[in-house]
Amino acid sequence: MEALKAAAYPGSGRNVADELVHLVATIGENMTVRRVAVIDVPGGVAASYIHNALKPGLGKIGVIVGLSGNADAAIEALGKHIGMHVAATRPDVLTIAEVDPAALEREKSVLAEQARASGKPEAIIERWLKAVSRNSTEDVVLLEQVWVHDGGKQGKGGGRKGRRQNHPLRPLSSW
What we know:
The chain is mainly alpha-helical and 175 residues long. It has helices spanning 2-6, 16-27, 73-89, 101-117, 122-140, 159-164; strands spanning 44-51, 61-68. Helices cover 43% and strands 9% of the residues. α4 (101-117) runs antiparallel to α5 (122-140). The longest helix has 19 residues, at 122-140. It is elongated, with a radius of gyration of 21 Å.
């Protein structure tokens, strides 16, 4: 965090910490840098997408996607499409392995108690909980989501679009 604050801010002649103070004084709103991440993609590309961009680099939601492979127009476009998908769906994790099993179990137990209280039979509750569990992971896991650019017709995971363009997606890390 300190390295970022000490870094030069482009076009202002100030460092990031001083630019932040300047912006707070100019705008009148308190702002802070809460977290920092570095995306290093040797031999690849870090593609970005800004949702509702008012002007270049300025919008409410920003997504950066690191893709390995030859940096060409097709992989940059794929990165932007994945960024749009992430901005629209807001996944919590990249893969199913990253879903917190304790949180999933808590959700299932609360739903099971609600179903029992309503008088549903146990056999129906078990089948219903399997479907709810599957749907819950589809909502929060990026590689299990329906690809929004195809209107839900293409199937799960933004990876399908990448495979169609001969750019197989391999999760390297998540946020």
